[in-house]
Specification:
Layout lengths: L2 E5 L8 H13 L5 E5 L5 H7 L27 E2 L5 E3 L6 H8 L8 H6 L8 E5 L6 H7 L4 E6 L3 H16 L1 H4 L3 E6 L16 H13 L12 H8 L4 H4 L4 H14 L3
Parallel strand pairs: 1-5, 1-6, 2-4, 2-5, 6-7
Antiparallel strand pairs: 3-4
Helix pairs in contact: 1-2, 1-11
């Protein structure tokens, strides 16, 4: 039965989709059967793994994120040439929020009920959720065994990360306890202890992050990398583009420590 991971944050620009998609691909390279569910209007993961955008709504998550689904999840799964499956999103994901908001009961569990139909087909399921705390995010949290919250090393991101953690904690009475891991993402290693910028203002924020997030902070940090951005521009994951670079090695460490370990 699959383990389910949700990637979320109440803020855009934290590298959430990039971390989710590259981690999913790295996990698939271990031989695991992986599904990625894209729930973002940016369709980042969908474009990366399918090499196209502009799919009809009926072929995306919009087909089943509603009271009366047009299709079920198994009918919207695409096989990527990169070795994993994907349920694509659509630029009109706001329509899903509207559809879910109109439901009087059970709206937070729509995605979970769909995932239960295909749990036995996969080893791992990754959910790329939107950068808003809305009905879509709630749907991503309900089926998740573990929630990853990528954040950059700045106070604004920290505040949004705290808001996201609070949102998850407040939902525990309804969905149960979720494992949470905050991931310092897009981080220049020179700000880390021992780096040349350790004592700078930004370097001191690393120490603050350790204090603020304490036992939920992942031990793996993911460095900022032009290679990651260039890879996406070329329709590639970092493991395809530069598998020997530091950022690729760190993604492997993240998968080993946070995905495959449980």
């Amino acid at each position: 039965m699959a383990r389910v991971f949700a990637f979320t944050n109440n803020k855009g620009g934290t590298g959430k989709s990039t971390l989710c998609s590259n981690s999913a691909h790295c996990t698939a390279q271990t031989g695991a059967k992986v599904l990625l569910i894209d729930m973002t209007s940016q369709t980042t993961s969908s474009t990366l793994f399918l090499g196209k955008s502009g799919l009809d709504e009926s072929d995306t998550v919009l087909a089943f994120l509603k009271k009366r689904p047009d299709k079920h999840i198994e009918e919207t799964i695409f096989e990527s040439q990169k070795g994993l499956d994907i349920v694509p999103s659509h630029v009109s994901m706001a329509e899903a929020v509207t559809q879910l908001s109109g439901m009087q009961m059970g709206k937070e569990g729509v995605l979970r009920r769909e995932i239960e139909r295909i749990l036995d087909l996969y080893d791992y399921i990754f959910i790329d959720s939107p950068g808003d705390l809305n009905e879509l995010t709630a749907n991503a949290l309900v089926p998740a065994d573990k929630v990853f919250i990528p954040t950059r090393l700045n106070r604004t991101d920290f505040q949004c990360t705290e808001t996201t953690i609070r949102f998850i904690k407040e939902a525990e009475d309804y969905i149960g306890v979720r494992k949470i891991r905050v991931v310092l993402n897009m981080l220049d290693d020179r700000y880390l202890p021992g780096g040349i910028w350790t004592n700078s203002h930004t370097g001191e924020l690393y120490t603050q992050a350790q204090s603020m997030f304490a036992d939920v902070l992942s031990s793996v940090t993911v460095p900022d990398s032009a290679d990651m951005r260039t890879a996406f521009d070329r329709g590639l994951t970092i493991m395809e583009y530069r598998p020997t670079e530091v950022v690729a090695k760190r993604i492997q460490d993240f998968v080993k420590c946070e995905v495959l370990c449980d």
